[in-house]
Amino acid sequence: MTRRLRVAAAVAALALAASACESGRAADGTVDLPDPVVATGATSSVDYVALGDSFSAGPFIGTMRADPQGCARSKDNYPAFVADWLDVATYTDVTCSAATTTDLYEPMVMFDGNTTRPQLDAVTAETDLVTLGMGGNDFGIYDSLIQCQRGPAAACPVAQLRADAGQVAGRIRQAVRRILAVAPDAEVLVVGYPDILPTDGTCGAVGVPADVLGPVTEVAGLLNASLRRGARAAGGAYVDMAAVSEGHDVCAKGRAWVNGPRLRVGVAAPFHPKINGMRAVAVEVFREVTGEEPAEVTEYAEPDPDAVVLNAS
């Protein structure tokens, strides 16, 4: 039995134990998560490693992990939900806010001035599953998009941003290949970014006219397309969050998966996923890995403490 099939077998046991759980996908294709249920089942043998930037780390969502503190990594980010729902044997989360693909291979200076090891060091020959969620910080793309959002449309360097977004494909291709060189039997999932801003119109939470948002949403789409190309070219899979997050941007009010422009400690960093957004990503990752709906969608992430590998050195 392959490692992928072992995951599916474990999840099938969970599904049988919670057969009353309804599907999380609505008729219009959006993901409206089911109410939390309690399920029990066999623990899988999966060794899971999560790599990524702040959209994976989850800064300011609930309680931050302190291993290391400078990464602003939440205990309720999507890797934690995935580890919980898959009942993994080992769970190592080295996602770090502000990370770029360079930080996969080199030490990273964190927000607090301390240094963390290269993220790829967490991957070993025994690793079965890797999620990789990064690329938006490469070439300063997201920083530039924030500046575009604050200024007139004419001041946004769209041509340069288009070119930069296109170059991310090569970096993701290299990253996936490097991961598979270390863990040749692993399943590698590149996780795309959700819709942050509306693709049509605007709202008070954004604070700028729709014509200013046009270049921003265009480049965001190009970035996700680049992630998809890089993943598939290297033998990885792509988790398309833009497809399922439509209608859950900052203008969606109670249905929003992302926070607005204000820092809300305990909720999320500005224009970053909230806990419901993290659960939504975990649903898609779970579905990609197993081909099944999660049998257990919990309000908070509770991976087995014995499976959590602490990263502080």
TrEMBL record:
Q: Which domain of life is it from?
A: Bacteria
Signal peptide range in chain numbering: 1-20
Q: What Pfam families has UniProt attached to this entry?
A: Lipase_GDSL_2
Concerning InterPro entries, the annotation shows: SEST-like, SGNH_hydro, SGNH_hydro_sf
Q: Where is the SGNH hydrolase-type esterase domain?
A: 50-279
List the Gene3D superfamilies hit by this protein, alphabetically: SGNH hydrolase
Question: Which keywords describe this protein according to UniProt?
Answer: Signal
Q: Which CDD domains match?
A: SEST_like
| Descriptive protein name | Lipase
Organism, by scientific name, is Nocardioides flavus (ex Wang et al. 2016)
**What lineage, starting at the top, does this entry show?**
Bacteria, Bacillati, Actinomycetota, Actinomycetes, Propionibacteriales
